[in-house]
Amino acid sequence: MTRGFALALMCAAALAAADTPQALMDNGHHKRLRAIAEPLYRDHPNDPEALWMMSFVKLSWDDHKAALELAEKAVAADPRNPRYHLGLAQALGREAQTAGILRQPGLARRFKKELETTLTLDPKNVAAMKYAIMYDFQAPGIMGGDKAQGRAMAERIMRIDAVEGYAAQLMVARYDKQDNRVEELLRKAVDAGPSSYQARLNLANFCLGSVKKYAEAETLARAAIRIDPSRAGGHTALAVSLIAQDKWADLDGALARAENDVPDDLTPYFRAGLSCLSRPNEAARAERYFRKYMTQEPEPYSADHARAHWRLGQALEKEGHKPEAIAEWQASVKLDPNSPAKQDLKRLK
Fold first, then answer.
1. Distance CA 106, CA 277 (A)
2. Which residue of 14, 60, 105, 273 has the fewest CB atoms within a 10 Å radius of its CB?
3. Residue 152 belongs to what domain range?
4. What is the CATH number of the domain that holds 253?
């Protein structure tokens, strides 16, 4: 790493002590990472750390070809760094998802090889192990997939980190269609790691699903927020749980705190809008939340503005504002020609 690059990275990190590049990646703060990565890459285009960060950024915004090229350069510049090999595996995996049938086998084999290299360099890299489990269960045997090996990898993770181990066992249970084990494994993860944000959030989201344990979901979401208020997931789960319990007096305060704690990720507003949309007499509230969500760029992997326009149109239709609803659906289709808003437009026109 060049001296100038190191100093720049230290200055960027000083803006928020917890916001290291890896932490930003792990915690879903893609826009914050981009704000650091782009100027560093511009000034140090051959530094492996800058290449690795920019590869992740490109992958987040679905430019998988550029991500793959950058990841390959990072590995070539520093072939002994396991993070770079894992980044290359991630880029290869995304490229394989969109590649033609003739290219997929070669990309899949390279993906597996990069995971193996990552684990050779860092035998306790849990993220690489989880990708290996996915590969073993999804790839055919002729391409190296091995379900028994995937199960063994889950046990290996358990010996390293019990919370992650239960998460790995949950992956295996879902691949084996053992849905009856899901709640048990989620609860074991919480018991194994009382201070784990992700364990509590995972169980909260489960409670918000078909089991409808909304009060418990609220308790778990509040606990997750206490552990780490800087991530949107806990705030989102809390908002949804409050709506499910008709705790309307608490909702706006919870969303205001979410915006204060995570000002660059308004996902809690979008998810609250969705929940309000399904409740009687709450379309106006849903409209307000969808409009709030569209006041800034969404995080990657969150609802894009095309989807938000579609949902806003549905809220407006429920309020009886059909011309405004049509305008929102037209905006949605303009942003995404495959938007579900096309069906709503056909229905009303």
1. 45
2. 14
3. 124-193
4. 1.25.40
Closest Cα partner for 168 from 191, 193, 196, 134?
Answer: 134
Quote the pTM value.
0.92
Please answer whether residues 174 and 182 qualify as being in contact, where contact means their C-beta atoms are separated by less than 8 angstroms.
yes
- Provide the token pair at 324: 């405004």
Contact 328, 310 (CB under 8 A): yes
Question: Are 19 and 106 part of one and the same domain?
Answer: yes
Give me the phi and psi of 2, to 5 degrees please.
-70, 155
Cα dihedral: 286, 291, 293, 298 (round 10): 130
Q: Measured between alpha carbons, how far is residue 181 from residues 9, 102, 167, 175 in Å?
A: 44, 38, 12, 12
Give the pLDDT confidence of 190-226 residue by residue, as tens digits: 999 999 999 999 999 999 999 999 999 999 999 999 9
In the chain, what is the greatest distance between 2 CA atoms, to the nearest angstrom? Answer: 62
pLDDT digits (tens, 9 = 90+) for 154-193: 999 999 999 999 999 999 999 999 999 999 999 999 999 9
Q: Are residue 54 and residue 165 in the same domain, yes or no? A: no
Q: Where are the beta strands (DSSP E) in 207-339?
A: none
